[in-house]
């Protein structure tokens, strides 16, 4: 046995045994007996270790490596692009190890759809008016939103106010209306101590000013700045107010230098993953012909980019981003903890 030979050689090296097959060279008989017993014990220990070693290693692996599970913190699973394929989309996400998906609403008209989709699939949802949908609501609809949120507080699958925010990129959107809805919904989040899911497009500083105006601080409920793209200073502004930043398909494009730099440099405790399905396709889907909608099942592959940028294993990426999503969305953590494993 290889192990036995090494042990003999080790003993020889420290002078307990002589050359192979020639017996002990100890000066007296008693010393030789002692050395012989010592060697036998050492052989037994060695044999036992060889036998139980693999068992110990596999037990240690079971303790320290939970199965890789991902959280997609932003996916519009109710979107028309996924109609007809929703069952397959959900099944593929499960097979890919996506444990939970956050489904944000965009207007009161889809509150019911996101709630029912979450209930049917075991995922979670948020309620809010998206900045690109403010022309479809009037100010009196705010009370509708407020009542829906108040009722949803009894629903363990309701986790945040969202998707809200500001979009100064898409032409033709009413800026004043966006600002009014943003402020009102931040107030709503404060009222119910809920985190917010923020849409951030060419609006980072105005969003930050709105949060500060509302007295948002790192002690408030925070949230997620989704699909974040901005300067390091702006990123630090959100982080200082208790936010996590969402990274997804955009990070997979080698030319997305700013997003990739942020993903590699920001504190690891502030990163969460998202797909924004069916939008923001990763590089490999953007090139596909015919174009395919993005889905939560892409998340583990998108995460490979984050892992590569940071020198992480996939397991570490899953563990840290899952912990961050749970910290950003405490009701999501409570929902997951209540589920049978
Ligand atoms: Zn969105």
UniProtKB/TrEMBL annotation:
Family as reported in the entry's similarity comment: Belongs to the metallo-dependent hydrolases superfamily. TatD-type hydrolase family.
Record keywords: Hydrolase, Metal-binding
Single GO MF annotation: metal ion binding
Keyword Lyase: no
Full protein name: Putative deoxyribonuclease (TatD family) (Modular protein)
Gene3D superfamilies the record matches: Metal-dependent hydrolases (3.20.20.140)
Transferase recorded as keyword: no
